[in-house]
Design goal:
Structural class: alpha+beta
Strand order of the largest sheet: 10-1-2-11-12
Distance between the termini: 63 Å
Low-confidence stretches: none
Mean pLDDT: 87
Order of helices and strands: HEEEEHHEEEEEEHHEEH
Number of strands: 12
Radius of gyration: 22 Å
Largest sheet: 5 strands, antiparallel
Length: about 270
């Protein structure tokens, strides 16, 4: 049935599908995994990096980019499509500053990116962007009627090739995102401290990344304009802690099984 209706972007199938948009979603599923986790006054963004070739400069292969001084973006899908969308988002951030003399809110730039993605699903002669984005950041601190400073809270949003955007407490996009999301649902809790949020992000990525710390990139946003990337040494240290915890848990399981088996043998 789909073969008659997947030639043109603007033609619906009889059962209401736009197949080109759905195929763009398949490109996202083939992309590397990205994870966002919100904690207490912190947002953590972690991505799976592809291994660079021996003679390739790793600085030219970036999966986490700064859109504005308070907004960080990661993506899953076609890297070339992401570059175009990131450039459009950066231009909008600077245009907004020049026009209203205030930085964009995280929701505003998310809505802008989702609007661009949606427009490319509704016109002939174009194709949808083959990426989903994961956007993390803080809005500028505000104030109440008494003149007190109101601290901004971390925000995490995702956009899809169809133009849908949504807010999350913790989320994953890209390869094996369903598995990682289920892991986050079991392990995320409110008011995670910064170290706990970083650990949960890396632990969830290790569900799909088999090569350890060298293929993981992590950015931590701790406030408006406070963005830092973890070094390989910092990521390696967390990975080693997680591996030790797993080994200790396996040892406890083996001891429980041995104790159960010994108890059953004694009863015979």
């Amino acid at each position: 049935m789909s073969r008659s209706y997947d030639r043109a972007l603007t033609v619906f199938s009889p059962d209401g599908h736009l197949f080109q948009v759905e195929y763009a979603g398949e490109a996202v599923k083939r992309g590397t995994c990205a994870v966002g986790v919100r904690g207490k006054g912190v947002a953590v963004l972690g991505v799976e990096k592809k291994s660079t070739l021996q003679l390739q400069d790793p600085r030219t292969v970036r999966k986490v980019v700064v859109v504005d001084e308070h907004v960080v973006l990661a993506f899953a899908g076609l890297t070339a499509d992401a570059r175009i969308l990131i450039d459009k988002a950066r231009i909008e951030c600077q245009s907004h500053r020049l026009t209203v003399e205030d930085p964009v809110t995280v929701e505003y730039i998310t809505r802008h990116i989702a609007g661009i993605q949606q427009r490319y699903t509704q016109s002939g002669g174009v194709r949808p962007f083959g990426i989903s984005t994961l956007i993390v950041g803080f809005d500028q601190d505000g104030g109440d009627e008494h003149g007190n400073v109101v601290k901004s809270q971390p925000k995490i949003y995702t956009t899809e090739p169809s133009g849908i955007y949504s807010a999350w407490k913790a989320v994953a996009i890209g390869r094996s995102s369903k598995t990682v999301r289920e892991f986050l649902e079991k392990n995320w809790k409110a008011d995670l401290e910064a170290e706990e949020a970083i650990k949960l992000t890396i632990k969830s990525l290790l569900e799909v990344v088999q090569t350890g710390a060298k293929n993981i990139e992590v950015a931590v946003v701790e406030g408006f304009g406070q963005i830092r990337n973890l070094t390989l040494e910092e990521i390696t240290k967390v990975v080693q802690e997680i591996e030790k915890e797993k080994e200790a848990e396996q040892e406890r399981k083996r001891n429980r099984l041995a104790a159960t088996a010994a108890g059953q043998a004694a009863m015979r």
